[in-house]
Specification:
Distance between the termini of chain B: 40 Å
Oligomer: heterodimer
Structural class of chain A: mainly alpha
Helix content of chain A: 55-70%
CATH class of one domain in chain A: Alpha Beta
Number of helices of chain A: 40
CATH topology of chain B: Serine Threonine Protein Phosphatase 5, Tetratricopeptide repeat
Strand content of chain B: under 5%
Largest interface: A-B, 18 and 16 residues
Strand content of chain A: 5-15%
Number of strands of chain B: 0
Distance between the termini of chain A: 86 Å
Largest sheet of chain A: 8 strands, mixed
Number of helices of chain B: 7
Order of helices and strands of chain B: HHHHHHH
Radius of gyration of chain A: 37 Å
CATH superfamily of one domain in chain A: Spore Coat Polysaccharide Biosynthesis Protein SpsA, Chain A
Number of strands of chain A: 10
CATH architecture of chain B: Alpha Horseshoe
């Protein structure tokens, strides 16, 4: 090669014969020269290096890594330097990519991240990742260990997006201790150096000496320059040490400051999100985690690269969404997280749990299809397990054949089939499966126990007793399990409730059995087991214990469980989880009863949803299912009005409606908006009035009018009562009638129902707007709690079929208004959004 | 000099020149400023009677009527103004608004068309 070399590979070696030749083989064709500085090998390292064509320099080891690296730099001829250890490799694809990076004229160095399988949980500094840099005279390393080129000298560093794989080396791992000794010497020499303080803090953190590490990190924070490469990581380490010691408030302060200074270092946002999650500030946690995900979209430009990966952030975000009962969003997060990290089978179970909750099996079906296509056995087994847990026995039986084709026939497959058949009541088929199981097999015991459970189910006490005797003889079965089954047998046959506390394993057996009995419809037996389980005082399990009782709307049993919870926070969590599930199944009354149990506690967003569901249900029950004519058909606008509207250029802006779809009310509303934009308030109000005259129930227009009233009520009154505006549409024929209507609406919207009633009452029965005013009267009475009077007045009316849809519409809008309030308070609540959608979609009929 | 003082001075002047339309107009403006709409209208009306083609008087009188939502009366005054000053966008918009307020959408649409040409 002639001219200036491009890339020099530099390696510091000591007794590396085991790895060196592989490393050189891997790198040879991608670099222009290889420099090896050996610091005292006694094996064949030097010979291997020379044989591979490297320039090998021996150096007397003086406990100083900087000296060794600087010798490499002195000898290297390339424009770029790549530092590797002998036990490190870079894939060929990535090496090709690396050559493109060397073309960038604006970069002085690149960070390459090192995968250390043997030290996965060790924290390391991004400074140690600066492996690729320009060969300049001014770039020289300092410090004996954890050597660094001063940040004052080296800037313009980018992330290479290239990973180095390090092979585990026990000798290298033991060298960490000697490195720390050297670091201590350095820190004695330069006690105020922020980099050394930070590195020493990291080493203390690795030794779990949190308290001591904090002292060094805090000193480093005082001395650090925010431009330093390690500065964001320093803040992360300090906050992590504080979190480990449960000093959350201080950790939050550090994170707040860190986020201000390093807004793109998403790890700080993730840690703050996690802290906020722990302190139940869920909405703030969502904000932080979403922001961190957004920041990571520009990951390539963030230096140093944040370490917490997207899959973990998504999983954490999913957990927060679950906490605030945003199940759909949680599901989406877990799904995305799983797509990014398919090794995490735990995520599949989380997905399964949510799928069951929201009754949406699409994701599982998709995942199963992909697993089948890819023949991913682990994923298939996990998914089958999820289907089994969800009692999709028919589905499991259908898929088990495929599984059989992959792993072959065997006892595992037969045991799955046996369990499914037993649960489906297909005893003969189950017996066939059982017959092929060897008595010595681990599956045999499990199947035997299931058979006992099945006999209990159908009151076949004698047969169950015989099998119990059989299990007594089985040595491989734990005695505690045998005892548990004998206890259960006595419980069913003698109705004797033993006060033995159940250990964890027995508790699991009994709770699964309770769920099975419930699923099979044996309520009494399930109740017996519930009493037994409640003796265990395992309050953490009570939500799970109550869940199977929701399906059958068993309030008494849910109440029984709730009354056993002593802790207020746990009571609240129980209420939130169970009420949400009850509402999902439309068991509104049960949910309302559950709220009243225990101390009164705020249920957050759920409170709005519970209110709304109860409110709409009550109204629907009251008005019944009377088929009635639809609300007045919206009037089509005249050509002149459409021309005017189009002339104003408004038609172009409205993407939601075509001209043909526009109604008089809609056009005037749009004109109102036009005048608002032009800051012509009275003109706007007049346009909105006209929209309301055409469609007195248009909620959006109503809101706009009320807002204008709130902005300046006296001016509003003057305009309404004194100014000249015209009447249009078929509802109002006298100005005074419309004035009463507007006044009534304003009171109604402000929840002043008595005043609203008085205003609406002024509209006479002979007026065309009377039905709608009357509907508002009924609504006002109803919402003021005067239901009896509302019913009485309605009874006096002959045209109830005309009033009911109007009344329902009014109530719907009222409920939407309340939910909007809730949305403002809990902007991330999926429950409120879904309830709003449900109400919008709900029809009177 | 505050509005009241100005008003007194103008009224004194008016005693000397009882047929001066500009004085009537100026008094109308001062009354408009103190939100005495009724008397402002009276003075503008007199000014207009005395000088029906004065653009300032036309504009002021029409604006007062517009402010009072007397759109029907304001329209001919604005239109007379536009005879004198054809392309006054602001006044054209006022006429457009008057027609809209009166529900005369065809005329409102025509005014929009004219506005687009300016």
């Amino acid at each position: 090669m002639t001219g200036k070399k491009r890339l020099s590979l530099c390696i510091i070696t000591k007794n590396d014969q085991k790895y060196l030749s592989n490393c050189l083989q891997n790198m040879k064709e991608f670099v222009d020269e290889i420099i090896i500085v050996d610091i005292g090998s006694r094996d064949l390292t030097i010979a291997i290096g020379k044989q591979a064509g490297a320039n090998v320099y021996r150096m007397e080891w003086k406990n100083n890594y900087s000296e060794a690296k600087n010798l490499c730099l002195d000898q290297a001829k390339g424009r770029w330097i790549l530092f590797l250890q002998a036990n490190e490799r870079i894939s060929k694809e990535q090496l090709k990519e690396m050559h493109h990076l060397l073309e960038n004229p604006n970069v002085e160095g690149y960070l390459l991240y090192v995968d250390r399988p043997a030290q996965n949980h060790r924290i390391s500094s991004p400074v140690q990742s600066l492996r690729l840099l320009r060969n300049r005279r001014e770039y020289r390393y300092q410090y004996k260990a954890f050597e660094q080129i001063s940040d004052e000298r080296l800037s313009n560093i980018l992330d290479a997006g290239i990973r180095i794989t390090q092979q585990a080396d026990p000798i290298l791992s033991s060298e960490v201790d000697s490195l720390i000794l050297l670091l201590e010497e350095d820190i004695k020499e330069y006690p105020e150096d922020s980099y050394l303080q930070y590195m020493y803090g990291i080493e203390l953190l690795n030794q779990k000496k949190y308290q001591e590490s904090i002292v060094y990190f805090q000193q480093a924070c005082k001395n650090v320059n925010f431009d330093y490469l390690f500065a964001p990581h320093l803040y992360k380490c300090l906050s992590w040490a504080l979190i480990s010691l449960q000093r959350h408030t201080e950790a939050l302060d550090v994170l707040d400051e860190g986020i201000k200074v390093f807004p793109f270092y998403s790890d700080l946002l993730v840690l703050r999100g996690e802290l906020r999650k722990q302190s139940q500030q869920y909405e703030e946690a969502i904000q932080d985690l979403e922001r961190s995900l957004k920041t990571r979209e520009q990951l390539h430009s963030i230096v140093p690269r944040p370490e917490i990966n997207t899959s973990i952030i998504l999983e954490t975000l999913g957990e927060v969404h679950e906490k605030v009962l945003n199940h759909q969003q949680a599901l989406a997060c877990y799904h995305q997280a799983y797509e990014l990290n398919k090794r995490n089978q735990e995520l599949l179970y989380k997905i399964g749990k949510l799928v069951k909750k929201i009754d949406s099996t699409e994701i599982l079906k998709k995942l199963f299809k992909v697993a089948m296509e890819q023949k991913n056995l682990q994923q298939l087994i996990t998914l089958m397990d999820i289907f089994f847990q969800q009692r999709k026995y028919v589905q499991v039986l259908a898929h088990v054949k495929y599984l059989e084709s992959l792993i072959g026939k065997g006892e595992q497959i037969e045991s799955i089939k046996f369990s499914c058949y037993m649960m489906l009541g297909k005893v003969e088929e189950a017996r066939l499966c059982f017959s092929v199981i060897n008595k010595e097999s681990p599956f045999y015991n499990h199947m035997l126990l299931q058979r006992i459970e099945n006999y209990w189910c159908y009151n076949q006490w004698k047969e169950a007793g015989e099998l119990l005797e059989e299990i007594n003889e089985i040595e491989s079965m734990e005695n505690s399990i045998k005892a548990a089954y004998h206890l259960l047998h006595r419980l069913f046959t003698e109705k004797e409730l033993s006060y033995t506390l159940l250990a964890k394993q027995e508790y699991e057996i009994v709770s699964t059995l309770m769920e099975n009995f419930l699923w099979l419809g044996h309520i009494e037996k399930a109740q017996l087991l519930l009493s037994l389980l409640l003796q265990g005082e395992k309050e953490d399990q009570y939500i799970k214990l109550a869940e199977p009782w929701i399906e059958g709307n068993h309030y008494e049993n849910i109440k029984k469980i709730f009354l056993c919870i002593s802790n207020e926070q746990k009571q609240l969590e129980f209420k939130q989880e169970i009420i949400e599930s009850l509402l999902r199944s439309e068991y509104i009354e049960t949910a309302e009863k559950l709220v009243k149990l225990g101390d009164s506690q705020s249920l957050g967003a759920l409170e709005y949803v519970l209110w709304s569901k109860g409110f709409i249900k009550k109204i629907k029950e009251w008005i019944g299912k009377i088929h009635s004519p639809a609300l007045q058909t919206p009037t089509k606008p005249s050509k002149a009005l459409v021309d005017f509207y189009q002339g104003l250029g408004l038609a172009k802006n409205d993407v939601n409606f075509t001209i043909e779809e526009m109604t008089c009310a809609k056009i005037h509303e749009e004109i109102g908006k036009f005048y608002v934009k032009a800051q012509q308030r009275e003109e706007a109000l007049s346009a909105y009035f006209r929209a309301l005259q055409w469609d007195p129930q248009d909620d959006l227009v109503q809101e706009k009018i009320v807002k204008m009233f709130q902005k300046n009520s006296s001016q509003f009154h003057v305009f309404l009562e004194e100014k000249c505006w015209i009447l249009e549409g078929g509802w109002f024929h006298h100005k005074q009638e419309f004035i009463h209507y507007v006044q009534g609406l304003i009171y109604f919207k402000n929840q002043l129902f008595e005043k609203a009633l008085a205003a609406f009452l002024k509209i006479g029965e002979d007026k065309s707007s009377y039905p709608i005013a009357f509907a508002y009267m009924i609504g006002s009475l109803w919402l003021a709690g005067k239901e009896a009077e509302a019913k009485r007045r309605l009874k006096e009316q002959s045209k109830t079929s005309e009033v009911f849809p109007l009344f329902f519409y009014i109530c719907k809008n009222y409920a939407l208004g309340r939910l909007d309030e809730g949305h403002r308070q809990y902007p991330y609540s999926e429950l409120i959004m879904l309830e709003k959608q449900r109400i919008r979609d709900s029809s009177y009929e | 000099m505050n509005v009241i003082e100005g008003l007194e001075r103008k009224l004194d002047q008016l005693m000397k020149e009882p047929n001066n339309p500009l004085l009537f107009n100026q008094i109308g403006v001062l009354l408009y400023q103190v939100k005495d709409w009724k008397y402002a209208e009276m003075y503008f009306k007199r000014a207009y009677q005395l000088s029906p083609v004065n653009k300032d008087i036309l504009y002021n009188y029409a604006s007062l009527l517009y402010q009072q939502a007397q759109f029907q009366k304001a329209i001919p005054l604005y239109e007379a103004y536009l005879e004198l000053l054809k392309d006054d966008k602001e006044v054209m918009q006022k006429v457009r608004n008057c027609y809209y307020q009166l529900g005369e959408y065809e005329s409102a649409g025509k005014m929009v068309e004219q506005l687009q040409k300016v």
